[in-house]
Design brief:
CATH architecture: 3-Layer(aba) Sandwich
CATH topology: Oxidized Rhodanese, domain 1
Order of helices and strands: HEHEHEHEHEH
Number of domains: 1
Distance between the termini: 41 Å
CATH superfamily: Rhodanese-like domain
Number of strands: 5
Helix content: 25-40%
């Protein structure tokens, strides 16, 4: 059976925790905020104190990044533009042992819409 990108995202969302923007804003200070969008997207605006590691290189870079190295027990809020890449990234982070990684439902678009 051939799967689409949206099928993969839907499957990932079954295995992760998503939090809404209101919850993220209320609890933002407890998280390491991880933006998995491209650098070009990141430059155009980001959540406060976000660290940008693009989805395409995340699994290769996160373990050596100083903000994440040896922090598998840290609370991590993952977001992208609309939520799909963040869901996939969060699922992989959980597989890599980052057991408190959560995804921002609706991504940066939802964050911006709530302003």
């Amino acid at each position: 059976m051939k799967l689409t990108a949206m099928d993969l995202v839907a499957a990932a969302k079954q295995n992760i925790t998503e939090i809404d923007v209101a919850t993220a804003k209320k609890e933002l200070s407890k998280f390491i905020v991880l933006d998995v969008r491209t650098p070009a997207e990141f430059i155009n605006g980001a959540l406060p104190d976000a660290i940008n590691i693009s989805r395409g290189i995340l699994e290769f870079r996160i373990e050596n990044h100083p903000d994440f190295k040896n922090k598998q027990d840290a609370d991590i809020l993952v977001y992208c533009q609309t939520g799909g890449r963040a869901a996939l990234a969060t699922e992989n982070l959980l597989k890599m042992g980052y057991e408190k990684a959560v995804s921002l439902a609706g991504g940066y678009q939802a964050w911006q819409a709530s302003q």
